[in-house]
């Protein structure tokens, strides 16, 4: 943007600063107040270095040993190609419910709706899954937070997890209902604490190294007797990394509430995934090297894992302090997931692409935030939590499937984007001309890798494995059974009712004769 253009606009924001809402025919209705760090914090808190690594380390190392950590850089490279594609899209379309709107404008109305439906249902389940991490940390800090029975009893632990998780969801609902400024302030403060704590954990673990890196180059007997040998064990264990490094698109999903989003959102996406890879990787590597005894079975158990190593290595109250930091990380991660789900609900409802669209798309006049979606998502997440009491294995299957649905939703963006590149329709000229992020000649190569990676990872995550999904057969094949049901029910609603009513609600349509709407694209 040239200097004359800036001066001509005076105090008003230019259309490019507003994130290209005119491309979709939307009027601006949300509170645009998020700055650079808050945008970065949104992506980091969704990925959540401490939540993901501490929640899943036990599964990775228990399945394939220390060498499973090679999956961390592999997943990073794959997800980085997706992130780079998203950065280009964020530079052009930093709008609420980014994945939904990108798939819609790149593919078709049906592709957009399908990606949004998968992403929305997955986000609600993910919120339920994240808050369950409180059970692994709060009773460790104070036994009084085990409200029901004993933490060692599986049933008592499951019931208590629902209670603690419901409290967290109530908190995130209230914060989101009060507006994006409060959310951003709490989230940014939490991420600041999380980053400092994560770096300090890595440093302290590094100062207590007890072995050489040779452990990362040995299969140590894992995979023996399996048809694919160590590769089979490694592919299963890689889920521990694949389950962590996603959600970076949240920075763009808050684009309508971000100042100068076309420049801020792409940088926030890149910084979020880079910070998570470097700091999270350091914690994982140094934890393995500092563990007092890698043969200790507690390291590979759900109630042990990384928390167990930290407690063994840290002296005095230090371990307790860092457990508090993990609780903070889980809280802001929950807040970010809830926030992203609200923006996606709002984006789809604004297009009348959900039941009760007019109500779900309503923006509170004072807080300038969608309050009803915050409450609805909170209630649904708590209801899903209740499943954990009687059917913990089904809940584990559902949370795993939620991750697959997010990978599929990402594919519904990178796939159509690749098609646009082959047709010579991407990237738009205004990206390079305006100085916004673009991959240039490398775009088609990176996009190809992103699509191939998405397909490969979705297949690996969905592959029917008893060690992951358990039994009976409908759990073992759960990725196909449950995703088929969820997508089938959604498409049925779309075919019978949705497609006849989808279109920008009058209450959210830009009042311009020249507006260009993408909603009627088939």
Topology:
Elements: H1 3-9, H2 36-47, H3 49-64, H4 71-92, H5 98-106, H6 109-131, H7 138-141, H8 154-177, H9 180-206, H10 230-237, H11 239-242, H12 250-253, H13 261-290, H14 305-313, H15 318-350, H16 357-360, H17 371-385, H18 387-390, H19 392-422, H20 429-433, H21 443-462, H22 466-469, H23 473-476, H24 478-501
Helix pairs in contact: 2-9, 2-13, 2-15, 3-10, 3-13, 3-15, 4-13, 4-21, 5-6, 5-19, 6-8, 6-15, 6-17, 6-19, 6-24, 8-15, 8-17, 9-13, 9-15, 14-15, 15-17, 19-21, 19-24
Give your account of this protein's structure:
- The protein has 522 residues and is mainly α.
- 66% of the residues lie in helices and 0% in strands.
- The protein is built from 24 helices and no strands.
- Helix 2 packs across helix 13, helix 3 packs antiparallel against helix 10 and helix 19 (392-422) packs across helix 24 (478-501).
- The protein is globular.
- The two termini are 33 Å apart.
- The relative contact order is 0.19.
- Residues 1-16 and 512-522 have low confidence and may be disordered.
**What is the percentage of strand-forming residues?**
under 5%
Helix content range: 55-70%
CATH architecture designation: Up-down Bundle
| Name of the CATH first level | Mainly Alpha
Radius of gyration: 23 Å
N-C termini distance? 33 Å
Helix and strand sequence: HHHHHHHHHHHHHHHHHHHHHHHH
Number of domains: 1
Per DSSP, the total helix count is 24
Shape: globular
């Amino acid at each position: 943007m040239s200097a004359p253009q800036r001066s001509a606009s005076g105090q008003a924001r230019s259309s490019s600063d507003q994130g290209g809402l005119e491309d979709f025919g939307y009027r601006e209705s949300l509170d645009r107040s998020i700055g650079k760090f808050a945008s970065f914090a949104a992506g980091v808190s969704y990925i959540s270095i401490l939540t993901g690594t501490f929640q899943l380390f036990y599964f990775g190392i228990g399945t394939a040993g220390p060498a499973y950590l090679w999956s961390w850089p592999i997943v990073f490279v794959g997800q980085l190609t997706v992130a780079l594609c998203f950065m280009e899209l964020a530079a052009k379309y930093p709008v609420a419910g980014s994945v939904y709107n990108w798939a819609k404008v790149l593919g078709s109305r049906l592709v957009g709706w399908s990606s949004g439906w998968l992403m929305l249902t997955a986000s609600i389940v993910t919120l339920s899954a994240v808050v369950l991490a409180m059970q692994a940390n709060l009773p460790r800090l104070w036994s009084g937070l085990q409200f029901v029975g004993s933490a060692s009893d599986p049933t008592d632990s499951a019931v208590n997890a629902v209670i603690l998780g419901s409290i967290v969801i109530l908190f995130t609902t209230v914060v989101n209902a009060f507006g994006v400024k409060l959310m951003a302030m709490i989230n940014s403060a939490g991420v600041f604490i999380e980053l400092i704590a994560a770096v300090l954990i890595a440093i302290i673990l590094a100062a207590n190294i007890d072995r050489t890196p040779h452990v990362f180059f040995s299969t140590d007997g894992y995979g023996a007797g399996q048809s694919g040998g160590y590769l089979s064990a490694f592919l299963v264990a890689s889920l521990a990394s694949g389950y962590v490094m996603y959600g970076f698109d949240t920075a763009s999903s808050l684009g309508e509430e971000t100042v100068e989003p076309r420049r801020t959102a792409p940088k926030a996406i890149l910084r979020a995934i880079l910070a998570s890879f470097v700091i999270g990787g350091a914690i994982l590597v140094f934890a393995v090297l500092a563990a007092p005894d890698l043969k200790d079975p507690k390291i590979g158990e759900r109630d042990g894992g990384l928390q167990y190593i930290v407690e063994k290595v840290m002296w005095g109250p230090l371990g307790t302090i860092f457990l508090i930091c993990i609780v903070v990380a889980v809280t802001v991660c929950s807040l970010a997931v809830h926030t992203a789900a609200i923006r996606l609900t709002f984006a789809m409802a604004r297009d009348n692409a959900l039941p009760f669209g007019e109500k779900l798309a309503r923006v509170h006049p004072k807080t300038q935030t969608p309050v009803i979606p915050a409450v609805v998502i909170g209630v649904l997440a708590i209801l899903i939590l209740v499943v954990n009491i009687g059917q913990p294995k089904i809940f584990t299957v559902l949370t795993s499937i939620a991750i697959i649905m997010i990978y599929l939703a990402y594919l519904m963006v990178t796939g159509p984007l690749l098609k646009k590149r082959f047709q010579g329709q991407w990237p738009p000229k205004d990206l390079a001309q305006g100085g916004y992020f673009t991959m240039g000649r490398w775009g088609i190569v990176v996009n190809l890798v992103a699509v191939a990676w998405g397909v490969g990872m979705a297949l690996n995550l969905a592959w029917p494995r008893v060690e992951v999904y358990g039994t009976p057969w409908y759990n073992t094949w759960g990725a196909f059974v449950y995703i088929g049901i969820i997508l089938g029910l959604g498409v049925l609603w779309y075919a019978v009712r949705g497609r006849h009513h989808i279109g920008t609600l009058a209450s959210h349509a830009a009042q311009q004769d020249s507006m260009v709407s993408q909603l009627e694209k088939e």
